[in-house]
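Let us practice reading a record.
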Amino acid sequence: MLAAAGPPLVLVALGLAAWQWYVTAADVAPQVLPSPLRVVVQGWAFREQIWANTVPTVQVTAVGFAVSLVLGWALAIAVDFSGWLRRALTPLLVASQTLPIIAIAPLLIIWFGFGLLPKVVVIALVTFFPIAVGLIEGFAATDRQATNLLRSMGASRVAQFRYVRLPGALPSFFTALRIGITYAVTGAIFAEYVGATAGLGIFMNLQKNSFRTDLVLAAVIVTALLSVALFGLTYLAQRLLIPWHGKADRGG
């Protein structure tokens, strides 16, 4: 793990050093581009406010992504059991990704107010597609020989799904999960920008209007760390739920 994390950490350290040098050498105003040191110092000084706004963002991310998972699984299973649904819904799934969220989000505020629902809808719209498509493709890529074997033994369609198609689709699901979970945090931040009373999106917007670029960047760092943490948790969940997949990749 350390070997894998080493190169990106070195690259980040070099980037921060170059950033610090440039701001100091060019005497850039902190309202334009604060130094990394200033971002850390001011972020720590305002840590209580940042934390108070991080909690609502985490909560809405969890709720929205949970809704996306439930809908994604339900749709993918329905599509797997029905060829007609596959032909009917796949184009609609693709079309859903052409919807401009930046234009739809304000309408959601008008329709549903400033509560939890519009933010959950935005997150679901952003993350639903990779989850559903990952599962649909995972079910479709199941080993046909294993399916034919169960069918020859008289196994029902449900039994085939339970013992072959579902386990076979889990690696694809976790790949889609990693894509979706990073989109979920971004979707939550954007939804808060459009309309919310608390959250990192609101905090960033308020600090931007106050020309506190250092605090905006501090919140951005918190958002990035949150995304990385959730991304890492998907690997832990994968190792716990499908340990055989990792062993197969390592050849053991």
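A brief commentary: Residues 86 and 92 are 10 Å apart (CA to CA).
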